[in-house]
């Protein structure tokens, strides 16, 4: 699977540790693509973008467009993916597997953020990514990039009640 964003592109939005290897960081990107982005995108469009990203540059990058006589702007799937990747990085970035088990790295000059705090940051960045996706979703719908499939997997479940006399 081709990655839609790189570490340097995520660094345009967020500060990433200099010592973080690109190959390690790619695991966070891959996880964000496979689990967060895939969950909110129409399935066929997701696979089309993953397999042929060069055909979707207007979808991947920030872009202004016309729809029904109005001009709109979206931040692009890369900004959405950057939010998701950073969320996962914050949650898992300082956890290391050693021969003695999984540990959280620390040093004499700082203490790592506790899990609850990292979880709150994770949740906030996932929410921000979802908000950015709403802009992208409007572009997808306006340009007709999906046929016969809803643009979001979220469903509004309703139920009916009645009074029994």
Question: How would a textbook summarize the main sheet?
Answer: 2 strands, antiparallel
> How many helical stretches?
6
What distance separates the N and C termini? 59 Å
Side-by-side strand order of the widest sheet: 1-2
pLDDT < 50 runs, ≥5 residues: 153-159
Annotation, overall tally of beta strands? 4
Helical content class: 40-55%
Q: Report the order of strands and helices.
A: HHHHEEHEEH
| Total domain count | 1
Overall geometric form? globular
Q: Rg, please?
A: 19 Å
Mean pLDDT across the residues is: 87
Oligomer: single chain
Percent of sequence in beta strands = 5-15%
Instruction: Decide which structural class fits the backbone.
Output: mainly alpha
Structural write-up:
This protein is mainly alpha-helical and 165 residues long. The protein has one domain. 48% of the residues lie in helices and 11% in strands. A hairpin with a 2-residue loop joins strand 1 and strand 2. Helix 2 packs across helix 5 and helix 5 (77-92) runs antiparallel to helix 6. The longest helix has 28 residues, at 115-142. The N and C termini lie far apart (59 Å). Mean pLDDT is 87; it is low at 153-159.
